[in-house]
Write a structure and sequence with these properties.
By secondary structure, this protein is α+β, with helices and mostly antiparallel strands. The protein contains four helices and ten strands. It has helices spanning 4-9, 70-83, 86-89, 154-157, and strands at residues 14-21, 24-25, 42-46, 51-56, 93-104, 113-123, 127-135, 141-153, 168-169, 179-182. The strands form two sheets. Strands 5-8-7-6-4-3-1-10 form an eight-stranded antiparallel beta sheet. The radius of gyration is 15 Å and the shape is globular. The two termini are 13 Å apart. 31% of the residues are buried.
């Protein structure tokens, strides 16, 4: 089977079925549903065990005019890769970042829905490695990242109750995709 990078370089795209939508937290800068400055990213687990985040960056997320700030791009990649381990470990286990390396290739525009893909490349149950990329609407890769994460339970890393809809909720929408195209 071809790797994602090989698929991308050869122009192959896969339409992958969405298996699950992940919960969002209340005030997170990346996924917070009650935070006006949040990216309000929505995360979808795909049939190949990758994770896709869908985000429309706003004016408040820009660095240079009409371009998303590099730190914001690193944050969404970090969260997407860290969340990609949840299908392997269960929803109450998260990836806490140990290292993250990013490579910026192209600017990312504001006010367009953008796909961010995260995949786990290796793991022993406690330590996971993953990679991710930001895919522009012309299907070019704008930013790539690789990271190492330690697997921890929500109780150890956050003061929140994962059973409380005020802190941790899933909002299903009629507009949620059933499939997502990725290279």
């Amino acid at each position: 089977m071809l790797s994602s990078v090989s698929n991308f370089l050869m122009g192959f795209f896969m339409e992958l079925k969405v298996l699950n939508k992940q919960n969002n937290s209340r005030m997170c800068i990346v996924c917070g549903f009650k935070n006006d400055l949040s990216l309000q990213a929505e995360f979808y687990e795909l049939e190949d065990k990758s994770l896709c985040a869908l985000v429309t960056f706003k004016d408040v997320h820009q660095g240079y005019p009409s371009r998303v700030h590099g730190g914001i791009l690193a944050a969404i990649l970090d969260e997407t890769i860290g969340r990609a381990m949840m299908p392997y470990t269960g929803e109450d286990k998260w990836g806490v970042t140990m290292t993250l390396t990013t490579k910026y290739k192209k600017p990312v525009p504001i006010n367009e829905e953008i796909r961010i893909i995260g995949k786990i490349t290796s793991g022993d149950g406690r330590i996971f490695e993953g990679e991710g990329y930001i895919l522009l609407n012309d299907d070019k890769i704008a930013v790539t990242a690789k990271g190492t994460y330690i697997c921890m339970s929500l109780e150890k890393i956050a003061e929140m109750d994962p059973n409380n809809d005020e802190d941790w909720a899933l909002e299903k929408k009629d507009t949620d995709p059933k499939t997502i195209d990725i290279p």
